[in-house]
Amino acid sequence: MDLGIRGKRAIVCAGSKGLGRGCAEALAAAGVEIVLNARGAEALTATANALEARHGVTVVPVAADITTPEGRAAVLAAAGEVDILVNNAGGPPPGLWSDWSREDFLRAIDANMLSPIAMMQACLPGMMERGWGRVVNITSAAVRAPIAQLGLSNSARAGLTGFVAGTSRQVAHAGVTINNLLPGIHATDRMIALDSRTAAEQGITLEAAAARRAAAIPAGRFGTPAEFGATCAFLCSVHAGFIVGQNILVDGGAANLTL
Ligand code: NAP
């Protein structure tokens, strides 16, 4: 299927690895020019070069922390006018509800709620003026089915979800859609880190921890960044203009929900 977005311009935040990279890869394959962000310059440049070589599009790397005002300013300055915004950042650490301080909450809210909101506030006016735009926020399956030890993530992402619910309906008339993609378990560095922690806590191997987790997913496996990215690219396509303000689970059926 031709996604109809060849030549569009995108910002992909936190995209040198994992799910962000999957989104960047799928957009590049659809012919989208990309400003690609992550903090670590080495992996970022390697990813940008790989995408350019594979897909023949321009990929401009901007090494910056997207959770800081300076980082966002650098990304926005490099991008200029954008048609597509993919918001992403690292997730907050796991822990126990009783241990988190006000500062822990503020850090999580800054990274996973206020940063994507600031990026939307910067990009939406131009998209609306030009009559076309797509925003995809990478959130988490925990928005629909909370994961107890990820309470910082549950809390911050709930705030972002509320913002998107209202705002998406205020900008849709201008041809701009905002949707959230909710990853379940995907094979990325983040998952290796979480499985390593489980393995250490339970005295089992990393492979055993991963297998145990995969067995609990109806699809029987972890998702891949490639299939997650393809879903993101579809939401950014010309075909998805009537999908507005949705929270789309990509989780292999793991959340046991009817709706
Ligand atoms: P990942 O494999 O660890 O990759 C994270 C990417 O984001 C890297 O490119 C990293 O590069 C970049 N990054 C992290 N913090 C950043 C920051 N402050 N500014 C700019 N770039 C930053 O993570 P992932 O698994 O793809 O997860 C992506 C998001 O989805 C996270 O918020 C995670 O909580 C959420 N999620 C993931 C899963 C899953 O199964 N993987 C499930 C539910 C939710 P640098 O470190 O160099 O900056």
TrEMBL record:
<comment type="similarity">
    <text>Belongs to the short-chain dehydrogenases/reductases (SDR) family.</text>
</comment>
<protein>
    <submittedName>
        <fullName>SDR family oxidoreductase</fullName>
    </submittedName>
</protein>
<dbReference type="InterPro" id="IPR036291">
    <property type="entry name" value="NAD(P)-bd_dom_sf"/>
</dbReference>
<dbReference type="Pfam" id="PF13561">
    <property type="entry name" value="adh_short_C2"/>
</dbReference>
<dbReference type="InterPro" id="IPR050259">
    <property type="entry name" value="SDR"/>
</dbReference>
<dbReference type="InterPro" id="IPR002347">
    <property type="entry name" value="SDR_fam"/>
</dbReference>
